[in-house]
Amino acid sequence: MTTPDHPPQEVESPCVRICMIDPGHDFCVGCWRTLQEISDWHRYTPSQKLALLARLEDRRIACSVIN
Fold first, then answer.
1. pLDDT band at 49, cuts 50/70/90?
2. Confidence tier at 67 by pLDDT (50, 70, 90)
3. What's the CA gap between 38 and 2, in Å, rounded?
4. Contact criterion met (CB below 8 Å) for 55 and 49
5. pLDDT category of residue 31 using cuts at 50, 70 and 90
6. Residue 12 and residue 29: Cα distance in Å, rounded?
7. Which of 30, 15, 17, 18 is CA-nearest to residue 63?
8. Is 63 exposed, middle or buried (0-12, 13-18, 19+ CB in 10 A)?
9. pLDDT beyond 80 at 41
10. Residue 62: CA atoms inside 13 Å, Cβ hemisphere, count?
11. 59 with 32: CB under 8 angstroms?
12. Phi then psi for 7, rounded to 5 degrees?
């Protein structure tokens, strides 16, 4: 069962194979993760991955408002 208390065992990576770091923001323009987040992804728990995915969406929205 998948609920906030019981996240899925596997959370798919947000990578979309557009790998380019934006020098002005230090995150990938494809998946919105920082280099540290990209390199740490495989060590995150499912809950940590879901939390990061939520932050990535906030980051994407914030950057689209600025540009």
1. very high
2. low
3. 24
4. no
5. very high
6. 18
7. 30
8. middle
9. yes
10. 8
11. yes
12. -65, 165
Q: Give the closest residue to 53 by CA, choosing from 65, 36, 29, 37.
A: 37
Amino acid at 5: D
* 3, 46 contact by CB (below 8 A): no
Alpha helices, DSSP H, located in 7-45 = 35-40
CA dist 24 and 11 (Å) reads: 28
- Residue 65, H or E segment: helix 46-66
Alpha-carbon span 32 to 53, nearest angstrom: 9
- Cα separation, 29 vs 61, in Å, equals 12
